[in-house]
Amino acid sequence: MRAAALRAAFPLTLPILAGFMFLGITCGIYAESLGLPWWVPTLMATAIFAGSAEFVVASMLTGAFDPVQTFITVFVINARHLFYGVTMLDRLPRRGRLRPYLIFGMCDETFSITCSHRAPEGVDEGWFMFFVALLNQLYWICGCTLGSIFGNLVAAEVAGVDFAMTALFVVIFLDQWLADRVHAGAAAGAVASIGALALFGPDSFIIPAMVAILVLLIAARPGVERRLGSDADGTASPKDGAPAPEGASVRGTAGSGEGDRP
Amino acid sequence: MTVPQMLITIGAAAAATIATRALPYLAFREGRTPDVVRYLGRVLPGAVFALLVVYCLRNVDIAAGGGIPEAVGVLVAGGLYLWRRSMLVSIFAATAVYMVLVNAVF
After folding, report:
1. Ranges under pLDDT 50 in chain B
2. CB-closest option in A53, A61, A243 to B17
3. Portion 52-71 of A in contact with B at CB < 8 A
4. Rounded to an integer, what distance in angstroms lies between the CA atom of residue A177 and that of residue A213?
5. Model confidence over A59-77: pLDDT tens digits?
6. B52 within 8 A of A114, measured Cβ to Cβ
7. CA of B50: how far to CAs of A192, A247, B89, in Å?
8. pTM
9. Do A41 and A28 meet the contact criterion of CB atoms below 8 Å apart?
10. How is chain B split into domains, by residue range?
11. Looking at the complex, does the CB of residue A200 fall below 8 Å from at least one CB of chain B?
12. What is the percent of chain A with per-residue pLDDT over 90, rounded to a whole number?
């Protein structure tokens, strides 16, 4: 049971392995360059597990002691995770020992994979999601630790490996687009994100983009729900017939969740 | 900072991250999820992935003539995915093309 879940999860995490080793090593090198103790990146990767926030916390550790400021800053940086919880409300196992770790470990990359891939036939969904989350976190801890310990030894750093992360999100966006018959979410997300980036700049566009996404989607709700409603009855997926990557079934999230609740 | 101060700071950051990940589950307990939140759960994935793509590309400076390797990489990833429908092939090919472009061309 668990071995099958691990076998299903591992191939899907390979792009994350590439991206996290590179970004993790970068994060470790950065912390080392700030003069922080070697164990700081390892501890952050284990306890925080949120890449961009860890870079910011590393720089805060060199400044004045202000945990309240740290809490607020990290909450704002990671506010996008609120959306992941809303999306996965009906997907996580309702109870059991896997649930706390799945909530804790839901970083961008783990969310992307578990949101867009169902466990293959006969594989337990909870364990599948658990192994995706666990493998991703192990890659991240390894990368951060390696960067921290060997950072000063790495002379030749190859630029561009981190593009694996961008490519992953592009492919998952496309996959979601192909699975959705109503593209309101993608349209709202693209318009709001690009608009907010243009208006607020790269360092502070996430929160305005999230607010704009909510406003647009709630404003469009009557029309979107009418079209979603007519889709929800059909069980056929528009992706039927398309080869699913690595044996795991890809599915759209929109239109699911119907009927699995009393 | 002293080591205990570092530990408290990292603990505060961990608590903030856990809060962003756990709040929806605490706010909307089983069976009492408002309809609007369930609606958002259905339409948000498309929006979130668009946001993540923009987030990854946020530091590309088009005005300064940047962004060509990124644009090529995105097109390779998307085009290959439409053609082969293999996530791994798309991601590794796009990353390889991007790395060649940033290291050898630009």
Report:
1. none
2. A53
3. 53-54, 57, 60-62, 65-68, 70-71
4. 17
5. 889 988 999 989 988 998 8
6. no
7. 9, 25, 21
8. 0.76
9. yes
10. 1-44, 57-106
11. no
12. 46
